[in-house]
Amino acid sequence: MEESRAPSEPESLVIERDTSTSPIQVWSRPDQEVDMALLLEQYKMAVDSSLRVTEWRYRANQFGLAAVGGMLAAFGWVVKAAGESARWPLVAACIFGVVFALYWLQTIRSHRQLNSAKFKIIHQIEVRFPVRFFAAEWELVKLSTGTARYRSFSRLDEALVIIICLLFGVLAMYFGSADSWFGRNDVGGRAGVSSATEP
């Protein structure tokens, strides 16, 4: 028995570029009929691939939050243990924190862009199916308004990392400034030394 095959629809199975009028062909052979069994397997692979990207982002966020929490806890311990001598190492650590947060932010954006491209392809594959599950789900999500309005976790993750990046930047400027705890100790120490040496 021959496998059921769907007619090709090359006109509707393209993705328009954002910056170009030339379309990106989803189908390697748009002029031929599609083997639905093979298409279903490729569809499953695409969905599974998108889930793995989401898992990668989740793990990256877990690692980032753990690293930031550890750094902030270490700052407090170093200030108490090392005192004034830890001033510039803490400034350097904060600068590293800014760089780390920027790298983390780019990782989140890369995962979001990659998943967005994957779902564009998934939506195009669904044109061949009786139910366009993910495409319909996304359309329904976009209709929500008010307090029920959909908020992308990727966008929330980006906002959190930007706040962390700003926090490290503020800490770096604070530790390096004369108004910081270190700066006040420097001024007090110098005043104490000068008064002790005066006749």
Features:
mainly alpha, two-stranded antiparallel ribbon, 4 strands, disordered C terminus, 199 residues, elongated, disordered N terminus, two-stranded antiparallel sheet
Number of helices: 5
How does the major sheet shape up? 2 strands, antiparallel
Q: Stretches where pLDDT falls below 50 for ≥5 residues?
A: 1-22, 187-199
Radius of gyration, Cα only, in angstroms?
Answer: 28 Å
Instruction: Work out the strand percent.
Output: 5-15%
Secondary structure: helix percent: 55-70%
Structure description:
The structure is a single chain. By secondary structure, the chain is mainly alpha-helical. The chain has helices at 36-82, 87-125, 133-143, 153-176, 181-197, and strands at 5-6, 14-16, 23-25, 34-35. The strands form two sheets. A two-stranded antiparallel sheet has the order 1-4. The chain has a two-stranded antiparallel sheet with strand order 2-3. A hairpin with a 6-residue loop joins β2 and β3. α1 (36-82) packs antiparallel against α2 and α2 (87-125) packs antiparallel against α4 (153-176). 10% of the residues are buried. The model is unreliable at 1-22 and 187-199 (pLDDT under 50).
Summarize the structure.
By secondary structure, this protein is mainly alpha-helical. Helix content is 69%, strand content 5%.
Topology:
Elements: E1 5-6, E2 14-16, E3 23-25, E4 34-35, H1 36-82, H2 87-125, H3 133-143, H4 153-176, H5 181-197
Antiparallel strand pairs: 1-4, 2-3
Helix pairs in contact: 1-2, 2-4
